[in-house]
Amino acid sequence: MAPSWVPAVSEKLSKREWRLLAERLGYTQSDVDVLQGGPRALLTHWMCCQPPASAAELLRQQLDELAWTVERDMVIRPTIIPDPEPKQEKPTVFLSYQWAHQPQVKMLWQHLLAAGYHCWMDVGQMGGGDKLFAKLDDGIRSAKVVVSCVTPLYARSANCTREVNLSISLNKPIIPLLLEQMPWPPVGAMGPVMSEYLFVRFFQRDNERTGDERYWPAAKFDELLMQVRYHAPPDRAVAKASYWQWSPSEQAQSKAVTTTKPPAAASGPSSGKVFLSYQWDHQPQVKALRDRLIGLGLTCWMDIFEMGGGDSLYEKIDSGLREAAVVVSCVSEKYAASMNCRREVSLADALKKPIIPMIVDQRCPWPPAGPMSPVLTQLKPIRVGSDVQQHWSTDAPEVRELLTRMSPHFLEFSDRVTSQACVIA
Fold first, then answer.
1. Does 255 or 53 have the greater pLDDT score?
2. Are 259 and 281 in contact (CB under 8 A)?
3. What gap in Å lies between CA 282 and CA 321, rounded to an integer?
4. Which of 56, 118, 247, 352 has a 20 to 30 Å separation from 23 between CA atoms?
5. Which residues have CB under 8 Å from 285's CB, separation 6+?
6. pLDDT band at 387 (very low <50, low <70, confident <90, very high)
7. pLDDT greater than 80 at residue 311
8. Whether the predicted pLDDT of 355 surpasses 60
């Protein structure tokens, strides 16, 4: 809520004065255009978004520099009484965004705080004038992870580009959120920088409407939390109950890890993982497969669980494939056409990793058309039914075949997997 003195002070500011004041406080011309309420909107926005004590003091300084008369100054000084400065928590997340999307990013800020993550957002910590870049620098340096709220306006913004470049220079993890449908990587200076990052699609499609104020799909917020948690744990003191147990899949993995005897610390197949290679349209089905394999005590590599924000896409895939004991290739028409999926199959073949192809799209011919064909044509595929996700919780022959073909590559789990296959049989 804005202080009671805002209406009186805003009436005393001329059009020229309040625009000069906005510039001195660090607002750009586009920011001023958004503030359609004139000086009152400016003062309200400033006082609501800044720490109270520093906001009032900065406002006094800027009004003095604008050469307000003593009479006007005396009217203001006694009425601007700063509240005690609240304790400032060190932010975990730096929210980088373009001001046209400030309402959406504020909502994101509120939900991240409810999930236990303190955020740095310029409307809350920004000073004016020369302090602008110093505050940005301090905010990025103190954060554990940077969330880039990417839109076409963001990609064209010189200030947003500076924030991204500084984050990379400081080796800060970056999680790109795509707030609008747009080409990836973005066109312009950010293109080469963002090309190796995995983005999170953060806008809703028709079948993903939540029916409330949120503009993101519920599953995508869970994905964001998972990536942030990769770099920093949430603060239980501020996390709300609705967000505390936010990832059932993660809980399942934690339970499996704690209740299953870990693999021996030795090199070779017994210490490897199952690398799940898939195209994102089939993510729910592959997650269900992952949960089934984890329940058997196997360790799985799946990008959304292994990739932290800021990780280089190709470096993490390379590392995951090199550590894998076996690769399960979830083949579909889109998988065969995906450049990233082709890279995974080619690298797995070059590393001489065992590949088990599994056809998850009934329309996909065998072997699939395209560059994958020479690698996969010599392999026997496992063809599953249309409801792939349901198969992993039933005694389906596809499950038995997959477990049987994987068991030789996991020596420590071989007896367990084989016995499971026999039970299903």
1. 53
2. no
3. 20
4. 118
5. 330, 360, 388, 389
6. low
7. no
8. yes
* Other CB atoms within 10 Å distance of the CB of residue 320: 22
Q: Using pLDDT thresholds of 50, 70 and 90, give the confidence band for residue 271.
A: low
- Residues near 243 by Cβ (< 8 Å), separated by ≥ 6? 111, 114, 115, 116, 225
Calculate the CA 340 to chain-centre distance. Answer: 19
Measure the CA–CA gap between 195 and 203, rounded to whole angstroms.
20
d(CA 381, CA 366): 8
Q: Angle 110-112-114 (CA atoms, 0-180°, nearest 5)? A: 70
Answering whether pTM is above 0.70, one says: no
Q: Nearest Cα to 277, choosing from 334, 217, 227?
A: 334
Tell me the three-class secondary structure of the chain, residue by residue.
CCCCCHHHHHHCCCHHHHHHHHHHCCCCHHHHHHCCCHHHHHHHHHHHHCCHHHHHHHHHHHHHHCCCCHHHHHHHCCCCCCCCCCCCCCCCEEEECCHHHHHHHHHHHHHHHHCCCCEECHHHHCCCCCHHHHHHHHHHHHCCEEEEEECHHHHHCHHHHHHHHHHHHCCCCEEEEECCCCCCCCCCCCHHHHCCCCCEECCCCHHHCCCCCCCCCHHHHHHHHHHHHCCCCCCCCCCCHHHHCCCHHHHHHHHHHHHCCCCCCCCCHHHCEEEEECCHHHHHHHHHHHHHHHHCCCCEECHHHHCCCCCCHHHHHHHHHHHEEEEEEEECHHHHHCHHHHHHHHHHHHCCCCEEEEECCCCCCCCCCCCCHHHHCCCCCEECCCCHHHHCCCCCHHHHHHHHHHHHHCCCCHHHHHHHHHHHC
CA angle 136–138–144, rounded 5-degree value = 100
Phi, psi of 203 (to 5 degrees): -120, 150
